[in-house]
Amino acid sequence: DKSTLSQQTLMELLIDKIDNKEEICGDKDHPTDVSQWVRPCWGLKFNEENDIVHMSFYSCQIHGSIQLEWVPSTVRYIGFSYNYLSGTVNLEELPDSLQDMFLNFNGFEGAVCLTHLPPRMKRLDLQANSFAGSVDLTRLPKTLEELYLNTNGFEGDTDFSQLPISLVRLFLEDTQLSGKIRKSAYPRLHAFVVNSNVVSEC
């Protein structure tokens, strides 16, 4: 049961399959306390109760995979951009508290499930990876403002008729997705569809 585990244990499980995890936790075999997983430009941030609310590991030169099912329930922000991470990602067991997640510019692969994202999520950036398969955009969070799927191997006919009204930016360039976006239904939406088979029409 995830709820019985300490935040220390959860974080160690989250990064367990990162090959050079010592870049984050100091010692591969004996990780330092999570309170020390902090650097000037990246690391963890805590609230007044010392719960982790923010994890940012940008450009840390880390490689391997991450196990997102172990993200602590208090986390609101996740950033692993500009690394060499690979493998698949589980987006179905993220904490309800999560609002922003950036996994862009890595080597993640496989399919992604977008139908069980956290209910308060505002930004999800998956661009510039090797994700593939179809995407279901009919059950996105009602709070979502930005979704970046561009520069991936996503493909197939896609239903754009049930996007959240909150969505402001939708990036689909350099994919093989197809379908029609009716701009009149989403007056705030800026859809970027260059080098895809998606048509944005009035």
From TrEMBL:
It comes from the Eukaryota. Gene3D superfamilies: Ribonuclease Inhibitor. This is Leucine-rich repeat protein.
